[in-house]
Amino acid sequence: MSGLRPLSPANGGRADTPLPRFLDNSGLPIDPPVREAREGGGAVEEEMPTLLHRVKHDGSILSLCVSDELIYAGSQSGEIMVWSLETFQLVRSVQAHQGSVLCLYLADHQSVLFSSAGDAIINVWDAKTFENLYSIYSTFDVGDVFCVVYSSALQTTYFGAQNTSIQWYDLKAKDLRPRPTLTSHPSHRNHRFFDSKGPGGRTTPRPASKVVPPSSRLLEVDPENIVQYAHYGYVYCMLLITLPSGWEIGGDGGEMLLSGGGDGVVKLWTINPATSAITSAMSLSAGDSGVLSMAINDTMLYCGLTDGEICIWDLDTRQLIRSLRTHCEDVLTMAVMGNCIFSGSASGYSRKWNQRFEHMSRWQSHSGLILASAATKRHGRLIYITGGNDNCVAIWDASALAQAESQTLRSQNDQLLCSLSKLVSFRTVSSDPSYAEDCRRGATYLKQLFKRYGATATLLPSEGGRNPIVHARFGGCGTKGRNKGKTILFYGHYDVIPASESAGAGWQTRPFELTGMNGYLYGRGVSDNKGPCLAALFAAGELVQEQELDADIMFLIEGEEESGSRGFVDAVRRNKELIGDVDWILLANSYWLDDDVPCLTYGLRGVIHATVVVESDKPDLHSGVEGSRLNREPTIDLVNLLAKLTSSDGKVLIPGFSEPVRPVTPAEEEMYTAITNAIVNKPDWSHLTAAQIKDHLMSKWRFPSLTIHKVSVSGPSNATIIPRAASASISLRIVPDQELSVIKDQLVSYLRSEYSSFNSNNKLNITIDHEAEPWLGDPENDAFRTLEEAVMDVWSEGNEERVRPLYIREGGSIPTARFLEKEFGAPAAHLPCGQASDQAHLDDERLRLVNLYKSKAILKRVFKELPRK
Ligand code: BES
Ligand code: MN
């Protein structure tokens, strides 16, 4: 029977299949498109669910259940993992069984979790603390326990096993039962009658340790509470249903147990409310196929069978309504939520059906078997969750299209996520003019988003074909009177660094399609700087809705930051009237020092980007024909010139370059010591001593540096050519009190004077491409104080200890930071939203969902409270 395959622990076998790349279905069995859809009366439009997130484990996912806040998943190696439905962070992982966790069942208002497994045990857990309440087992060898349910009314758990039995345990009566003997515990039995082998005879190696819980938690099934041969096959699945009134079988309002077996039969069992005992009341036969999965909606029972079939019975009339062969392999999972039914098969395909069992959509959800599923409603969305032997849990938004597009029902975080996904889809690359139209569209989308959430918004044109600046203002209602007229300016940028879109190299996901994986959002610009900009937009928007905004929050979101903020100074000066006065400036465009400790950034280095070109008046030449010592080559001149910039150990040799660098004060020294102490024992830093860490941070943050980014040559660049011209891109990071204009002059005149001593007839050309002044904020001012309070509150939620942010500086540059301070006479503060591992400017740029949501919460607090200071 092929139905054996996926459910036996031997076959939850780890698939070495990588995470599906863009859900590519190549090389996999493909579920045929549905034929029945057309029969059922009128074509139903295909509505593809959207993948909200995917979390990866290191083994197959065999069971799933979902509460209002959490996803519980059971693994092949006996763990139960718990993920947050909001942030997709792993909140817990426990070694729950010595065998595959085959079924999970939440009961008692989601406070208790039942797990059944290949170790012949049913464990009962506190669903929040994961305290093991009971461990239930049978003295018989039952083999794998495929299914478990619990009746809260009767306080009785029922389970179905591989030895064809159904057994139950009445927790009300547990204290009346004799205490079990330890030797009867399944882990003490040496020879298991059942040790299910999959095709090929592989068995799953069981963990060696035999951990038996203390006997006070052990509960042994009364031999009277067993129905042997409940099926003529394995008992694969169970449902506990509340009977509608007026049913002939069972009592009104009572419960009934349904079981599905490898014998192709669904049995309906009445339950004696006094004893919890079950009696077979009726059998429904599905023919030769095993019943692998069941779901019920009202009186309609949907059964997933072996070989791709789905049977539907109306329990009211006990009639078989339909039998469809839609999937091409075993239908291992069925789930119901509202009016939707989901089926998932061993081919990796899921299907969504409506109540009339018309087909709505079909999509590949896993690159292996779908072994488990669950469904729930959350913030107006229909959430479908699948687990498979590709080691993934996938979370889908399966809402109907019309509903999916309406933002009104969504939670605020869902709306933020949805908007970010849209914003990331615009290829707003500022360095390449061919993306100018994408940039304009991105800017227009942002402008509309500001308006939708209650701001006034316009695009400020930049001169010379530069990307526009989005200017927006959320008007404070000034209820606190004294705050009226105050303004916080949030500065950010919507432009991004280019990202390679060719498959196979570089990115794991598509860079301009926001993709959720393991608690992170992947996409170009998600951290630098689209995510933080939207966190700020939603923070202000929500405060307006809550009528909690006193002051004005103004936004300048530019589209040229990655290109040195070309045109920004001009545009701001031209629009001075519109922009008006500013009291504080906030930025959110950098990263924490590591991945764990929240930080505040009080300094950025400045930068000078220059291009140095040496060219001759001759064309590209053949080196064999023309190469000679008397023929001065531009590339050799350039390399010799670049060599004058630094000593062989990397010290910058421009005369006077380092003189203005501010000396380290004792107070500053202390700040660095504090940071060093906070991180010295962390794994990322453990290879360095405290003194080395301090040195390392100081040289990145408060000392200047020089980089040669690129050296390139003219012509076909093959190894027989003397290039006509050679060029280098270089940059200098500068720090207080180096003066931008002085350093620029020093650089140019030093290169010129060194070059003149070469006596070459090739021409030297130096251009300054862009420049930024360094910025040093005051970590003692009100803006930083307010930020610190907010960071501590938001990141300490749920912790006993309050997390104080680290005050850090950054080696990177934001050209406008110092300019805005000077132009508006207002101090700036900087909230880093991302983690050190965000990969800004690199492949696989990402932002952790928790960081996005918490950054919004922090900015909300600051927008509200800073003006009240
Ligand atoms: N977000 C960065 C600035 C940054 C970089 C902060 C590294 C912290 C660490 C910003 O978007 C950026 O990339 N700036 C450029 C500016 C340049 C193009 C003038 C930079 O630092 O190279
Ligand atoms: Mn950047």
Automatic annotation (TrEMBL):
Region (Disordered): 1-42, 180-214
An example molecular function term from Gene Ontology annotations: peptidase activity
Highest taxon listed in the record's lineage: Eukaryota
GO biological process, one term: glutathione catabolic process
Boundaries of every Peptidase M20 dimerisation domain copy: 675-756
WD repeat extents: 94-135, 254-279
Keywords, alphabetical: Hydrolase, Metal-binding, Protease, Repeat, WD repeat
Gene3D superfamilies named among the record's database cross-references: 3.30.70.360, YVTN repeat-like/Quinoprotein amine dehydrogenase, Zn peptidases
UniProt-listed PANTHER family: BETA-ALA-HIS DIPEPTIDASE (PTHR43270), DI- AND TRIPEPTIDASE DUG2-RELATED (PTHR43270:SF8)
Family membership: Belongs to the peptidase M20A family.
Protein name per its UniProtKB record: Glutathione degradosome
Species: Tuber magnatum (white Piedmont truffle)
